[in-house]
Amino acid sequence: MNPCRTFTLPPYQTAAGVTDMMIHIFERYFTKDDDMDLTTDLAEATIRRIKTAVFDVLKNPNDYRQRAQIMWGGSVAHWGLLGKGVEEDWATHQLEHELSGMFDVTHGAGLAAIWPSWARYVMHENLSRFVRFAVNVMDVPNDFTDSEATALKGIEAMECFYHAIGMPINIKELIGRDITDDEIREMTRKCSHDYTATCGGLKVLKAADMENIYKMARG
Hints:
single chain, mainly alpha
């Protein structure tokens, strides 16, 4: 692994790659399993480091130190350590694959477009985890009187981060136009394997849930 080989990666693909790394961590972090404290701490630290490093790299593509932080963070995100002892989710990835398949978009950008809507749809399955993410990762003040408001501000802060690095936060921003109801139904059909399969671990998504998230994400 040589960070120098990433110096010529375009800014858009750098941002999309970082988004994919972070959501690979999210797929393990947003879980119903709350007893893996060390794993959770490692996940939060990795997300924060990648999130910080990408801004320096976008300013200076030849920043070896920060390219190395991202490359190392990507390794930690992908090798499975952060999923040990927890039930992983992967619904965001499954939903996004249909966006890439239908519209030929960059995978990481598609993840950014779908994740905020998924997060709002499922956050009550483990609200305390979304609060923890907001406070520990996105530096949102904890409103101890309103956990839902804190969680929502964490999701909003993530949307601001996506925009700051040039990523979309909904499907309209991703593809440059409104998505049709027929296109949503087709993606739902494929994502659910002709209405025979579910996806997700934090909240098991049936076809109707998938369709609802696509509709929320349309922009």
